[in-house]
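Quick start: read one record
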Amino acid sequence: MTARAAIAAGCLGAMTLLASPDARAEQLIASMSNHRVTITPNYTGEELVLFGSIERDARTPANRSYDLVVTVSGPSATVVTWRKDRLLGVWINRESRVFDNVPSYLAVFANRPLTVIANAETLRRQRIGIANVPALQAQEAADDPFRAAFLRLKGERGLYRESANSVTFLTPTLFRTSIPLPADVPVGTYTVDIKAFAGGGVVTRAETAIEIVKIGFEQFVAEAARQHGAAYGLITTLFALMTGWFASVVFRRD
């Protein structure tokens, strides 16, 4: 290969790289009002604000409009859902279903309904929406009673939610949304995944995180239970016995 041919091949490769679909014409910039939430004895919940913008460049079509989907996912956990049946006049747990590695908290916020933003295949591939959580898809049918009960209980506690029209575009590229955290939100690191769509496909994305921790006496109790389970169980049992004995002495009738 001559020197001129080598230079031509190199220029062609550079042009191919610049024209690659991975070369994005937009950049998503986002920030949180607070990246660390502390759980205290009087904690009753909190609402965080996510805000940001979609930065365009010279290659971005001037008339392009965007959709935005924000997915907030808490630490994975194993959850057992029970079904109660009546036996001899008493309600007891009979059957159960174990859900492995499901998010302890899952919230999906968008500026429009998800089915309008993208088709079902794109949403499934991008794992967008509660229905597309891999651990909840698997072999369970959509009308599976255990799955339905799991989602209902999570929803009632405010730990699972999916909300359209909850992302507001202040300008064609500037956005904001609120992230509510209920009183019994689990501790741990939360992933905040932000995806910008145009024409039904993802054009750019960004990711940030939230840390939720306990402080004070609640933190001490939680760490003791986690790190010294046997000793914690023994101490709490002795404390319960002593409390019962003290109550019997105080309220004893002679």
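The CA atoms of residues 71 and 128 lie 7 Å apart.
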